[in-house]
Amino acid sequence: MGSIVLFGPPGAGKGTQAANIMRETGLPQVSTGDMLRAAIKAGSSIGLEAKAYMDRGALVPDDVILGLIQGRLLEDDAKNGVMFDGFPRTIPQAEALADLTTITHVLAIEVPDERIVERICGRVSCGACGAVYHDVFNNVPSSGCPCGTFIEKRRADDNESTVQNRLHAYHEQTSPLAAWYQERGVFHAVNGDRDINAVSQDLLGLLN
Ligand code: AP5
């Protein structure tokens, strides 16, 4: 089996949808955003370099990202493919990825820019288990997070000014990948401006 790419603008719902797709396919999630945040938390040199880019909503340089991905794909659980979340984000990243694994599906979650700010600025996650919620659209259950220990966490880059820069980077550097993958016959788009379950159904339908 090959690998899947979850594609879309910041806040489109890639992380939210990743859980269902992982359950359905058994593929491990590989999120470059999560890997970079772990590197920052660990205080590694990669983390220190990445932080300045992430804080202003710019893309981290390709060589840093590709170094992380090459290492991750050598791990045992990646042997039968993975589900990429937030990678690739530039044409050079996609070209390098083509030499590392076969991409069978690029699943794009399309959400208009005007929806993105409200999604990102209301995002909250559980610091204990990583579950993603939203202040308005996807509340933490009244019984608490299913993991039993809800620790409220908000991302440093989830603010209005950084979101505009992240959207700019998406349109300039990442959105050209849609045509790149269309040419390779693996690109599929769903309307992400709907209820979370409706988006899930469409994404799983594309995989079955
Ligand atoms: P990264 O962590 O990848 O962030 P992102 O792409 O900006 O995506 P997000 O995680 O913000 O959003 P998402 O699509 O996962 O949405 P979510 O499901 O959480 O990257 C962060 C930074 O790292 C980048 O800016 C860059 O600097 C760097 N970076 C990472 N990868 C890189 C790479 N490959 N190359 C270079 N730099 C890289 O949902 C958002 C909110 O909406 C949640 O609150 C959720 O509950 C809610 N929601 C989800 N779906 C719906 C729905 N259908 N309806 C209503 N609300 C919904």
SSE layout and pairings?
Elements lengths: L2 E5 L6 H12 L3 E3 H11 L2 H11 L6 H12 L9 E3 L5 H8 L4 E8 L2 H9 L1 E4 L5 E3 L17 E2 L6 H15 L1 H8 L3 E5 L4 H12 L1
Parallel strand pairs: 1-3, 1-4, 2-3, 4-8
Antiparallel strand pairs: 5-6, 5-7
BIS(adenosine)-5'-pentaphosphate binds next to helix 1, helix 2, helix 3, helix 6 and strand 6.
Write structural notes for this entry.
- The chain has 208 residues and is an alpha/beta fold.
- The protein folds into 2 domains: 156 residues, Rossmann fold; 35 residues, no CATH class.
- The protein is 47% helix and 16% strand.
- It is built from 9 helices and 8 strands.
- α1 packs across α9, α2 crosses α3 and α6 crosses α7.
- The protein is globular and about 45 Å long.
- It starts with a strand and ends with a helix.
- The relative contact order is 0.20.
- The mean pLDDT is 95.
- The structure holds BIS(adenosine)-5'-pentaphosphate.
- The site of BIS(adenosine)-5'-pentaphosphate (AP5) has 35 residues, from α1, α2, α3, α6 and β6.
Q: Could you say what the CATH architecture of the largest domain is?
A: 3-Layer(aba) Sandwich
What is the residue-mean pLDDT, rounded to a whole number? 95
Query: What's the overall geometry?
Result: globular
Element pattern in H and E: EHEHHHEHEHEEEHHEH
Q: Give the strand content.
A: 15-25%
Detail the poorly predicted runs: none
The level 1 CATH classification of the largest domain is: Alpha Beta
